[in-house]
Design goal:
single chain, about 350 residues, mainly alpha, D-Maltodextrin-Binding Protein, domain 2, 2 domains, four-stranded mixed beta sheet, 14 helices, elongated
């Protein structure tokens, strides 16, 4: 009786030990340790995207409307112009006004005309001068009793989601998923092949698919720390909204990370040198950096290239991230983007499995 109980107690422990010592688990742990022992990799994955988001978020932040400095000759004209709060009006004589206009201290000078009208002096090649002319003329006309033919009012929209940082952050997340998957996995495989480390694994009973799968599993182990760091920074510092489901967003990032990781496996399947791997990776990623709408909308490209743009995996990832985070779109509604991503994932993984060479 006691021997039977002991056998039952030992068996789960042996199974756990066998699992931990399996080639797949050990290979995954090796990948994980290699990443954390490289400060450069940690910087590019975690620190650089946050610094980029901070710099671009501050540089392209929404600012209050500019107050334009203009000049007026005569107290009556100056009083009429001061009715518009977007104008900083300085009353001066004509000589001083012309000198200020030449020196760039004001963008427009308004002075009474001989026929009772108003003359506006400004540089028509200067956008601020043209805008100032429209604002000043509107203020002067209203002071004279003019009324708008159509009643209109301003309705300002300053809700999070319409700013540049809101547009940018999903693009940075998608770019980070792509870079980590392609560069992080591809370079590791090529470096091991270059150092003849892969030759030592040929004699082992480890299947090829376990070696390739270990890269995917190690990539996923760091995925959510990476995404949480970038997204959390945007939410806490800039108030970027996350209107969709957090769990659906996490699942989508998981699928995207696997897709880019399989692309990295494919790129590294046969490359022999770091130079060759770097060239292939840049060849793969450069079109996505340009066309996929990381920093500006992909809709800016001509209609003739839109099918190519929409077929890129990074375009699908960024479009889906923006739809989920900014519009609250559910994962089930993102099936066109998911179809593109899943297609790339399946084709790249099985092609890499077919083409992979140990040496």
């Amino acid at each position: 009786m006691s021997s039977a109980v002991t056998a039952r107690e030992v068996r789960p422990a042996d199974e756990r030990k066998a699992f931990v010592e399996s080639s797949l688990v050990q290979l995954t742990l090796v990948r994980f340790r290699e990443f954390w022992r490289e400060p450069e990799a940690v910087f590019w994955v975690f620190v650089f995207p946050i610094l980029l988001a901070a710099g671009l978020g501050v540089a392209f932040r929404n600012k209050p409307a500019d107050v334009m400095k203009v000049g007026a000759v005569g107290s009556q004209l100056a009083a009429a112009m001061r009715a518009d709060k977007t104008l900083a009006v300085e009353q001066m004589d004509q000589a001083a006004g012309e000198q200020a206009l030449r020196a760039g201290r004001i963008v427009l000078l308004a002075l009474p005309a001989a026929n009772g009208g108003v003359t506006y002096r400004f540089d028509d090649t200067n956008p601020d001068g043209r805008n100032a002319k429209l604002l000043v003329d509107r203020a002067v006309q209203r002071a004279a009793g003019a009324r708008d033919a159509v009643a209109a009012k301003d309705d300002y929209v300053r809700e999070p989601g319409s700013r540049y940082i809101d547009f940018l952050l999903p693009g940075l997340i998608g770019t980070n998923l792509m870079g980590s998957g392609i560069w992080g996995i591809g370079f590791t495989i090529v470096d091991a092949r270059r150092k003849k480390l892969l030759k030592r694994l040929i004699a082992s009973p480890m299947p090829r698919w376990q070696y390739l799968l270990s890269f995917l599993l190690s990539r996923l182990s760091m995925l959510y720390v990476e995404i949480a760091a970038i997204t959390g920074f945007g939410v806490l510092v800039f108030g970027v909204p996350v209107r969709g489901s957090i769990w659906e967003l996490a699942l989508f990032c998981l699928i995207s990370a696997v897709a880019f990781s399989t692309l990295g496996l494919l790129v590294a399947a046969r490359a022999q040198t770091m130079e060759a791997a770097s060239g292939l990776m840049n060849l793969v990623m450069l079109p996505m950096w340009i066309f996929s709408g990381v920093f500006f909308s992909a809709d800016r490209f001509p209609n003739v290239v839109q099918p190519f743009v929409r077929a890129l995996p990074l375009t699908a990832v960024i479009d889906a991230l923006r739809a989920s985070m900014l519009q609250g779109v559910h994962l089930a509604q993102l099936w066109p983007q998911l179809a593109v991503i899943m297609s790339w994932m399946v084709v790249c993984f099985f092609t890499a499995l077919k083409l992979f060479r140990w040496k």
